[in-house]
Amino acid sequence: MTVKMSAPAASRFETVDALRGFAMLWMTVFHFCFDLNQFGYIRQDFHHAPLWTWQRTCIVSLFLFCAGIGQAIALGQGQSWPRFWRRWLQILGCAMLVTASSWWMYPQSFIYFGVLHGMAVLLILVRLTTHWGGWLWPLGALAIAAKFAGAYALETATLAPLTAVFNSPALNWIGLITRLPVTEDYVPLLPWLGLIWWGAATGNWLMRGGMRHLTRTLPATLNPLASLGRWSLSYYMLHQPVLIGALMALAWLAK
Questions:
Q1: C-alpha R_g of the chain
Q2: What CA–CA distance (Å, rounded) separates 69 from 26?
Q3: pTM for this structure?
Q4: How far does Cα 68 stand from its chain's mean position?
């Protein structure tokens, strides 16, 4: 099944930008609390406490859902492959910077397949499949189910010998794991491919018949979120250095 859409002139849609901006703001609050914990101002278990693990899941889900919507809109507007690759290289370059900086700060748990690494792979997959249209809804559900079904199958006696293979750094980026790897951020293909596919399916619907939702004027109070959403990659790369730098300065002044 393919999707045929009337491609409007390339433009920004404030509603999508605002939704992405909300995800970035939520992420900032989450990371600020994480940093407070690292500096000893609060005591929380970010790796196991549901309050934090579920928040992280929701933030990543919203972020990837918006990425899927954005890719469907870009294709509907006729985005060329060269333009796609330029943006993709920016994301890949930022992912490498995240790996390098996290290795410097957390050498035992550095980020080797976090949200930007996962995004780099997922964007290629969604670019190649967005034209599948309505099939993306069940395929998204299948991708999410495959993660949990696959992990369950690997715990059975028959497939147990394969657990070490799929849990290893060489293959745990797929997501068929039985234990979480030791890393500060981890966004494998499964189940997150399902979320970006659902976003692309939503974007297809918006471009095909829900344009009134895309072109709706935002209340003035939400304009800052839309502005934030337009600069999501730059903001993502800068927000943690700023937060950590501020806390380091505060610690130095408190001496």
A1: 19
A2: 19
A3: 0.91
A4: 10
78, 5 in Cβ contact below 8 A?
A: no
Helix axes 232-253, 14-38, angle to 10 degrees: 30
The angle that helices 136-154 and 189-209 make with each other, rounded to 10 degrees, is 170
Note the residue count of the chain.
Answer: 255
**pLDDT at res. 9:** 47
Of 93, 101, 66, 249, the residue nearest 184 (C-alpha): 101
pLDDT tens profile 162-191 = 899 999 989 999 999 999 999 999 999 999
Distance between alpha carbon 102 and the CA centroid of its chain, in Å? Answer: 18
Would you give the distance in Å from CA 100 to the centre of its chain? 19
Residue among 182, 186, 48 at smallest CA distance from 109: 182
How far CA 176 is from CA of 7, 74, 147, 156, in Å, comes to: 38, 31, 6, 13
DSSP letter string over 22-43? HHHHHHHHHHHHHHHHHTTSS-
Range with top average pLDDT, 57-61, 76-80, 180-184: 57-61
